[in-house]
Each structure stands twice: as C-alpha cells, then as structure tokens.
Amino acid sequence: MQKSEWDTYWNEIINSNKLNKTIEMLDQIDEEKNRLKRTKDICKNIFDNYQAIESSLKEVEEKTIILLKDIDNIYLQSSRVKTVDSLIVKVINRRYKYINSKKSRYNQIDDDNYVDIITDLVGIRLIIAHMGDWKDIHEQLMIIFPMNKDYQYNDDDLIERNEAAMQALLPHAYYLDGEKEIEDMYVENGITAKLSNEGYRSIHYTVTFQNYYIEIQLRPLFMEQWCMCSHNYVYKKEANSNHVFLENMSRTLENMTDMSGEIGDLMKAVYEGEYYVKANGNAFLMNENGIKCVDKLIEMCNNSMKELQTLKNRIELEEK
After folding, report:
1. pLDDT value of position 236
2. Which of 39, 69, 178, 305 has a C-alpha 20 to 30 A away from that of 282?
C-alpha cells in the first residue's frame, strides 16, 4: 500500500472508530518513554504483515474446523479470521489500556510481536442448545487440545505458539453472581471461573495449533442472541447517541435470554423425568424441584415486565 493510500485508510479507521484522542495520548506516552515507534507506524507494519499471513490463518481455521467436526451436541458452529480493520482497532485499544501495566502482555505489543500476543486472530464459536451440555463438550475439547503436561500453567501465561494441538492457556468461564454451584463445577473441571458483571456467560479456550493461537468460545444458544445485540448495539457506545436507552434494552434482553435458557433446561429435565410430570385432569403433578423452577421462571418474567414498564414510563411521544 502506497503512503497516500495508507494515510487515507488510517484517517478513515481512526475517525470512524473515534480514536483520535486515543492516538494523541499514545503518541504523548510513547514520546515520554522515548519509544521510537509510534502507533501509526506500528499499525502500518501490522497492516502489511497481516496481508502476508492471512491466507495461512484461513488454512488454520479450516484445519481446526476439521478437528472439531466430530464433537457431539454442537447445535451451531461458526468461525472467522479477524479482519485487518478489527485487528488494528484492537491493537490501538489494547496499547492504550495496558501501556502502563507491567503485568499485561499487551504492554509492549507492536508489529514484531502482535501474533504472539493476540490470541483470537482465528476464532471458533461452538453454540450448544443447553448449557447443561457444556461438561461433555469440554471433555471432548480437552482430548483434542490437551494440556501440556510439561508446562506449569498460570492464569494469563501463554504457552509459546507451536505446531501441536494443545491448550495454550487455562480455560476460563464467565458466570453470574449467585451461581455458586456453576462456579464450583467449573473449578472442579480445571476451568478458571470469572465473575461477569454484564450478564455474559461463556467458556473460552485459547489453544495453539499449526503455529498460531486460536480462541474457541463455547456458549448456549440463548446467550448468542444477547451477545450479538450487546456487541453490535451497546458495546460500540461511542458510535451511537442512544447508548443509555440501548443499555436498558440490553438488560431486558439479558433477563429474557436467561429465561429462555431456564425454559429450555426445564423442558429437558421434564423430558428426562427429572421433575416428574404427570397429567391429572386439567392439572399437572410435579415434584418440588420442578415447581421451584416454574416459580423462578415466573419471577424472571415479572422482573422483565417491570423493567420494560419502567423504560416505557420514561418514553415520551415525539411531537411532529
């Protein structure tokens, strides 16, 4: 790419992502630290290098999909190679967030080491119908990508990239406040449990294969819709003036997606006989645990209705 073309591209990506002030701050910090490379130069070199390795990443994506094709109980599978636009924005934001953090691997990220630091250049998403299926799929993933028995894993220390298929980082899972039983199950299965304050539930695996890092996300179908809406409409808050309204809608969607998951789990439990349901005229006989589950659904539904009504009370008709 010629310099004039790069300058045009750079200005477009900085302006569209509202990163002008971020770049100014980074340049100032780099100057204070006597660093020779500036963010724009780093990103230009990454842009050029990424064009050269993108085809290799696509091959790794395809080979990883083949490795995962026989895993049972996967409802939906998707994959992608990170776009160069997304990569450059991530590099800028990570440099800014961690530039003064000595503990983070992002502290020194540049064009020479970004492939060793960013672990989701290839991303795989495994969607399951019920979160209750996670343990079986986790065990299958740990067979395909085993732990390195000669390596002492720490929370954020990566194994160096290599050809073999193995875990590059301890798997970690996000759970919600009050889910003590789920947290304990994760820990018992060698997964680092992390509390989510934003309603996010998922298990993340960082693996190495064919000399690249790959991120595999495992989450239930009901969570996928919330993640997509939250990322597209709420996460990009600087790009939309209606952020507060969208945040409120996201919380309602979070509750409803949780309820959807609970309904799915209830249906599965009834089908498998766990909650014992038997028709009794126009009524249904059910054990105590099943009734508690239905009561929980009613409470979740009522909470969602209250949130929507509260939001509705704040809405005024626009006068033409």
Report:
1. 57
2. 305
Q: 136 with 73: CB under 8 angstroms?
A: yes
Is the CB of residue 114 less than 8 Å from the CB of residue 57? no
In 30-111, the DSSP E strands lie at 76-81
**Backbone dihedral angles phi then psi of residue 60, each to the nearest 5 degrees:** -65, -40
Phi, psi (deg, nearest 5) at residue 147: -75, 150
Rounded Cα distance between 281 and 276, Å, is: 16
Residue 188: how many other CB atoms lie within 10 Å? 10
| Cα–Cα nearest to 114, from 46, 54, 59, 47 | 46
Domains of the chain, by residue range, sit at 54-233, 241-313
Residue pair 229/137 in contact by the 8 Å Cβ criterion: no
Contact indicator for 192, 167 with CB cutoff of 8 Å: no
pTM equals 0.76
Q: Which range is most confident: 24-33, 67-76, 147-156, 230-239?
A: 24-33
Is the C-alpha dihedral spanning 246, 247, 248, 250 positive or negative? positive
Q: What is the sign, positive or negative, of the torsion defined by CA atoms of 242, 248, 254, 256?
A: negative
Q: Are 253 and 215 in contact (CB under 8 A)?
A: no
Minimal CA–CA distance to 229: which of 255, 199, 253? 253
**By three-state DSSP, how is residue 142 classified?**
helix
Q: Note whether 277 and 286 are within 8 A (CB).
A: yes
Residues in the chain: 320
Q: Considering the domain delimited by 54-233, tell me its CATH architecture.
A: 2-Layer Sandwich (3.30)
Sign of CA dihedral 254, 260, 266, 268: negative
Summarize pLDDT for 49-75 with one digit per residue, the tens. 999 999 999 999 999 999 999 898 887
Per-residue pLDDT reduced to its tens digit, 4-22: 899 999 999 999 888 999 9
Write out pLDDT tens, residues 134-163: 899 999 999 999 999 888 888 778 899 999
